[in-house]
C-alpha cells in the first residue's frame, strides 16, 4: 500500500497543465505571469475578455504550446520576439487588440504554424 501512495504522490508532482481556457467570460485585468506552470501547457486561450497590458514574456517559456489565442482583449505593446521559439505553435490569434509596432521577423520561422491572425492591430513594417 505504501508503494501505491508513493506512486500517487509522484504522479501529482509530475502532473502537467495541458490547457488554460478563460474564453469568453469578461475577465478583466492583466494576464498574470504564468511562470513555471507553463512547461506542459499546450493550449492558452484567454480570448474574448477584457485583459489589458502587455503579453506576458513567460508565454515564451511554454515549450509545448500549440494553440495561443489572446484575441479580442485590450492588450497593447509588442509581440514578444521569443514567441518564435515556440516551434510547435499551430495557431496564433492576437487579433482585435491594441498591439502595435512590428511583427517579429522570427515569427516567419515557426515551422508548423497554420493560422496567424493579426487582424485589426496597429502594426507596421514587413510581413515575415
Automatic annotation (TrEMBL):
The keyword Zinc-finger does not apply. GO terms for molecular function: kinase activity. It is found in: Membrane. The keyword Transferase applies. Gene3D superfamilies: Ribonuclease Inhibitor (3.80.10.10). Its main location: membrane. Keywords: Glycoprotein, Kinase, Leucine-rich repeat, Membrane, Receptor, Repeat, Signal, Transferase, Transmembrane. Residues 1-52 form the Rho-GAP domain. It is a single-pass type I membrane protein. PROSITE patterns: RHOGAP. GO terms for cellular component: membrane. Pfam families: LRR_1. PANTHER family: LEUCINE RICH REPEAT FAMILY PROTEIN, EXPRESSED (PTHR48053). This is Leucine-rich repeat transmembrane protein kinase family protein. It comes from Forsythia ovata.
Amino acid at each position: 500500500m505504501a508503494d501505491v501512495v508513493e506512486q500517487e504522490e509522484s504522479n501529482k508532482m509530475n502532473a502537467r497543465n495541458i490547457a488554460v481556457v478563460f474564453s469568453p467570460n469578461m475577465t478583466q485585468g492583466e494576464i498574470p505571469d504564468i511562470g513555471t506552470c507553463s512547461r506542459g501547457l499546450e493550449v492558452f486561450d484567454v480570448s474574448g475578455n477584457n485583459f489589458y497590458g502587455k503579453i506576458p514574456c513567460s508565454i515564451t517559456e511554454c515549450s509545448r504550446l500549440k494553440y495561443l489565442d489572446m484575441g479580442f482583449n485590450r492588450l497593447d505593446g509588442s509581440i514578444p520576439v521569443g514567441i518564435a521559439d515556440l516551434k510547435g505553435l499551430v495557431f496564433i490569434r492576437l487579433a482585435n487588440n491594441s498591439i502595435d509596432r512590428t511583427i517579429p521577423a522570427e515569427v516567419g520561422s515557426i515551422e508548423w504554424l497554420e493560422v496567424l491572425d493579426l487582424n485589426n492591430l496597429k502594426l507596421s513594417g514587413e510581413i515575415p
